[in-house]
Every structure is written in structure tokens, then in C-alpha cells.
From TrEMBL, chains A, B:
GN (gene name): purK
Upper lineage: Bacteria, Bacillati, Actinomycetota, Actinomycetes, Streptosporangiales
Stated name of the protein: N5-carboxyaminoimidazole ribonucleotide synthase
Organism: Murinocardiopsis flavida
GO CC term, one of those recorded: cytosol
Binding site for ATP: K108, K152, E189, E190, R191, V192, E197, N274, E275
Family classification: Belongs to the PurK/PurT family.
Keywords: ATP-binding, Ligase, Nucleotide-binding, Purine biosynthesis
Length: 388, 388
């Protein structure tokens, strides 16, 4: 432990990205000693934290050393391998969420199987066998669901990709070849004709306390979350409550500790589970400015087994828009315009190197009318990118 | 400059106390590179910042070296001596607020003279001459105002004190003797029969933009701000607007850059200026949780000459209570109670060593009814201190 003035609870966060950075922002008022385990000193969270530990997150030695300096370990991402997680637990570290929960966020096949067991509504899906039978299995599945279908790498993906939409057997065969070459198991899912995408977040503590945030609408573009409208406009109460219950059940059944995000498709027949994330999530950034307890504070409280904070919204509507990098890296020269134009706008920059298409920050704005707020958030994000 | 991923604006803050710590919390989302100049690595802000510079804040050499790494310098406190401030300006540093403004926050005699020139309403006051005539001058003043009177050290104070209430000539003589021995000039002020104490904060940028926060009620105890009610309950609009205009005029006339707090006495005849502070101030901590733009974000925007954020309140009422240290230093063991009892409460700890009577944090809570919120904030502060 570094020198401290009092016995503050310490949380070690593995990964130095923007989620760890925003966790540091939440740790300051709580007096929680956040310790960042990063790959380099220029990672997003490393730039704003004292006592950053540099190391390799696949190294049991590096992480068990780090764990000795922290009361609790948690995560900026889901990439720490299962054997490393289990070695940490065996070494006596409090790993939250634990490996038994995290594997469902790391492996889409395990997640689908478990979700089905729990009776959670899912898109139709099938595991594809390794080897030459994959194409025939996929053809049989597509004969039931129709084309296009969605192919997903069960774990990790390759070439930076993990989800593909295949229009027909030829494009599917190409994905199957690539996955086989990379030794990555695949599953296939029907392409859901959704009305819109939703997400719901809950926090859960080891004690078992749960806090559910309002269901939000998420707008994806090119597989990236672009905008979030909180709460989801016009969502009927029954669907909202059902989605929150679903997330609470999943958190409970999988023994999740910390924030859980459940990404959903809204369809005429109800909601379907798309993906799970066991950490603060892009769909919850709105809560930093639009709820009594932001998701990063809530995550810290949950992993420390402290009583959870109120997830109540502080405004009728909050909209978040991600800021992507453009071709001009000098984002700060554009501060003047967005701040002068909209004094109510909240800007969150991640301190990252600007590269075209990379998430480098987000903006939020709160008020009464989602349509007005969305226009303002979009305008600010586009301007900060350099598009306007 | 430390390694950065993009040309982020950098603000150097002189002093590593809780105001610098809360400025770091605000700097993270802005992407502002906050650089802390502290006396030791265990100061409040040093615990939560990367690249802390340790040095002596009365050393021109230490501070000019530090200034070279920052776009702008600002302050956690008002203790940097004028000659040091002027040397920094001469070295080319952007010092905000500048020494010409800061001297009015550093020297109560200068402040009273200037406030009078500006026509700002002040308590009756008089400078006491050094030497044997002080007692006679004070007696003449007290003959006009009546006893008790308030004696103030013009600069700095001594023995950790700067304000004394004297009931009569004997206790006054004692203060005069102590001040003479410490070579500290004194002024005497009438003891105002105020209805309550108020404070008003404005932010001002070098460009001249001003944002005024709602007038708040402050409750002092033993010379320390204990509680703040925002906005001041039941304050009539005329008085509120007059107080905001007064603060704006003072900010403009004194060329203040950053946050200015004007502490006021409310009297049946109107408000009187008590003190000025040219930095984020205890009376403005409520704005971190109760306004669109908290005072620390606003201060950073102002000193960087960025457009100011909206000071609009996000709830009808917000109450802040300071958390003082008690005899049991283990404040974190008391987290469970306050968090479980009031999930809407926001706790802010400063990471300081717990000593009886020392400000170690504050709590805020927002809602509709000041009376209810005050009871909740008081309860939490008392519990965290260890009184309940």
C-alpha cells in the first residue's frame, strides 16, 4: 500500500482505459483508493491516477503482486483469461465479479446456453461445429430463420472483429474459414427484426443488494454504441419492469458483483437478450450526469460490498452521444464552440490519442425533451469530431 | 509537460488541499491536465493525481519551474505571497486570478478600503494604528458601535487565528498586544446584528464572461462553515438579485478570474460584505451535486478562458454539511450506516488524516424541502464524525 492518511478502502482495477478513468473520478469523492493496473503510463486512466502499476494483464505473477496492494480487484474490461482469474482467486484475492460470473461475459456460447437454462428470452441460435460440418449446420439453421444471419465468435474474435452479418452461404463460408484458421468457435444467431435496441443496468453487491437503473434506448452504428436516450422514450411500464426483472434475475443467477449491463432487442413479441457486460458500460454513461448515483460510483460501492446508491434520475430525460475521433486531432480547439453554444452540455474526454472512428469521449445533456436533447448532443459530438 | 496523447490544456494548481483534489475530479471529464504543486505526497490532492510536483510555495524558483509545465496557474488557497505572485507574472506565467486581484483576498484592510470605494455595503470598520494609540482608537470606535466588536488581522493572522470577538477593552487589549508582538496590522469592525449569513458565488473569465450562482445561506459555527442551504430559503428576489449584482460588480472591478465567493451578512437594512475568497469555496460545494456546472469545473473553465457552464440548479433544494473529524479516525467503518440509511446522500471525503474538529469531507443531498434535507445531511455528518 502507498502511504495513506487513514485506512481507506482500496480497489484495484485491471485495465487503464476510459472505464477505469471514470472510476477514478468516482473514487475521489468516496475517498476510495483506486489503484490502476495498466499496460502503459499513457493509458486513459493512468494519466489521472497516482501510483499506477504497469504490467501484463495475462501474467499471474504481475496480477497477484498487484492484488496484494488492494482490498478488492475489479475490471476495466473482460479480457483477463479464466486461468489467470482463477489463480488470483486461489491466491486469496477478492475478484469482483468473480471468474464464475465473468465467463458468461467472456464466452458467448456459455452465455447463450445459460440464458436459455434460465428461461431468458434469446434470439434463435445454434453452435456451429468445428470442421467441415459447419457450413451444413449453418445452412440448416438459415433454412429455419432465413437470411441474413449473424455469426459470432464465441470468445475474443479475431482481426479485431467478433460479429459478422452473413447475407448468404458464400459470405458465411468466408467467416467460417477465417474462424477455423484462427481456431475460434462460432455460433450463429437469427438476425432479429427489432423495433429498437434497449439496455438495462443493475448493480449487485456480494451481500445480494440490487439497484436497477431505468431501461434506456441505445442507438448503434457500425457495431458501436452511438447514442443513449434515458429513460427509453415511450417504453411501456410492463416492458420496462420485465427488462429490469430479467437483469436482476441474470445478476442473481450468475452471481454478478458490480455493474451488469444487459443489451436487449425490443421486438413486437417482447425483449430478447443480445449481450451481457459485467462492468460499467457505455449504455450507462448517462447516469454520471443524469442519476443520483452514477454507474462508476455504484460499481465501486458494489465491489466493496457497501450499500448501493439511489439510481433515481435527476431529470426527466438525459441523452448521451459518443464522441469519435476525426481527422483533426486538436479536439480542444473545438471546446470553445460547444461550450459557448450549449452551456448545459457536459463533456467527458478520455485523454486518448485521437484516431478516426475511435471513441475519445462522450457528451451528455439533461432536460425535458429527448428530441431536443438528442439534437444538442449530436451537434456537440459532431462538432468535437470535426464534422461540422 | 508529462507525456500526453494530445495537446490537452494544462492547469497548475498551487496547493494540494481538498480544493485541488475536487478540481482534479472536475479536470478528469474535461480532459484538462491538472498539475498539483503540493508540500507533500500525502496532501489531499496529491493522493489522487499523477505527476504531482513537490515544492515550497514561497519559493520563486520552485514555482517558476512549475509554471513552465502549465498553460495557466491557479490556487488551492490564498497564501502565496505577493512578491512571489509578481515574480511569476514577470516570468511570463498566466496567473489566474492575478496578484492585483488576489491582494484583496489576502489583505482585509485593502479589501475594506476598495469595497468602500466601490460603494459596496460593509459593516462599519476602522484601521487600528500600530503602537500605543491602538487602544484609544478602538475605544473611540466602540463608543460609536457598542461592544462587542470584531478584531481582524489584516493579513495572515497568527497562532492560527485571524478573527477575534472582543467583549470589552480588556479582551481587546489582549488581542492588540498579541498582534503587535506578531507584527500583524489589525482592523476593527462592528459586530453586525445579522439575520443570517449568506454567500454568493460568481465565475469570471479573462474574456469578461460572468456566471452567477444562486445566493445560498451559510451556517457558521466556531468560525467554520458548517452547513449550506442552496438556494437560500425564503430569500426575496430583490435581495438575491442585489447580492448577485454586488458579486458581479466586485468581480469586474477587481478583475477577478475564476470563482469569487462573497460572504454576506443579511440584515434588516440589506446585505453587508463580510469576506471575499477568490477560489472555489466551501459555500459552493453544494454545486458539485446540485448544479449543472459545479464550482470546480467552472473555475477550470474560467481560468482557461473557456465559455462558462450553466450555474442552473438541478433540484429545488440542495443542502451541504461539512464532515469534521472526531476522536475515532476510522471514518470508513461508518460508511455502511450512512449509505444504507440514505441512498440519495453524496459523500465527499478529502483523504485527510482525521483530527478532531478538522474538515475531512462534506455531504450533500438534493430534493424539495430544505428542512428535510438539512436533517438528513446533519445526521450523516454527525454519524461520520462519530457523534451518533
Amino acid at each position: 500500500m502507498s502511504e495513506r492518511n487513514q485506512p481507506a478502502p482500496s480497489v484495484g482495477i485491471i485495465g487503464g482505459g476510459q472505464l477505469a478513468r471514470m472510476a477514478q473520478q468516482a473514487a475521489i469523492p468516496l475517498g476510495v483508493d483506486l489503484r490502476v493496473f495498466a499496460k502503459s503510463g499513457t493509458e486513459s486512466a493512468a494519466l489521472v491516477s497516482a501510483g499506477v502499476r504497469l504490467g501484463d494483464e495475462r501474467s499471474v505473477g504481475d496480477l497477484t503482486d498487484f492484488a496484494k496492494t488492494c482490498d478488492v480487484l475489479t475490471f476495466d474490461h473482460e479480457h483477463v483469461p479464466q486461468p489467470v482469474l482463477r489463480a488470483l482467486v486461489d491466491s486469496g484475492a477478492a475478484v469482483r465479479p468473480g471468474p464464475d460470473a465473468l465467463r458468461y461475459a467472456q464466452d458467448k456460447l456459455l452465455m447463450r446456453r445459460r440464458a436459455e437454462e434460465l428461461g431468458a428470452p434469446c434470439p434463435r441460435w445454434r453452435e456451429l461445429p468445428a470442421g467441415p460440418d459447419a457450413a451444413a449446420e449453418l445452412a440448416a439453421f438459415a433454412a429455419e430463420t432465413g437470411w441474413p444471419v449473424v455469426l459470432k465468435a464465441a470468445r475474443g474474435g479475431y482481426d479485431g472483429k467478433g460479429v459478422w452479418v452473413a447475407d448468404g452461404p458464400d459470405s458465411a463460408a468466408e467467416v467460417i474459414r477465417g474462424a477455423a484458421a484462427a481456431d475460434v468457435p462460432l455460433l450463429v444467431e437469427e438476425r432479429v427484426g427489432f423495433t429498437r435496441e434497449l439496455a438495462v443496468q443493475v448493480a449487485r453487491s456480494p451481500y445480494g443488494q440490487v439497484a436497477a437503473y431505468p431501461v434506456v434506448e441505445t442507438v448503434q452504428r457500425d457495431g458501436i454504441c452511438h447514442e443513449v436516450l434515458a429513460p427509453a422514450p415511450g417504453l411501456d411500464d410492463d416492458t420496462a419492469v420485465a427488462a429490469q426483472r430479467l437483469a436482476i434475475d441474470i445478476a442473481h443467477e450468475l452471481d454478478v458483483v458490480g455493474m451488469l449491463a444487459v443489451e436487449l432487442f425490443e421486438t413486437p413479441g417482447g425483449v430478447l437478450v443480445n449481450e451481457l457486460a459485467m462492468r460499467p458500460h457505455n449504455s450507462g454513461h448517462w447516469s454520471m450526469d443524469g442519476a443520483v448515483t452514477g454507474q462508476f460510483e455504484q460499481h465501486l460501492r458494489a465491489v466493496l460490498d457497501l450499500p448501493l446508491g439511489s439510481p433515481r434520475t435527476t431529470a426527466p430525460a438525459t441523452v448521451m452521444a459518443n464522441v469519435l475521433g476525426g481527422t483533426d486531432p486538436d479536439v480542444f480547439s473545438r471546446y470553445i464552440h460547444v461550450m459557448a453554444k450549449d452551456p448545459e452540455l457536459k463533456v467527458h474526454f478520455y485523454g486518448k490519442e485521437v484516431r478516426p472512428g475511435r471513441k475519445i469521449g462522450h457528451v451528455t445533456v439533461s432536460g425535458d425533451d429527448h428530441r431536443d436533447l438528442l439534437a444538442r448532443a449530436r451537434d456537440a459530438a459532431a462538432y468535437l469530431k470535426g464534422d461540422l
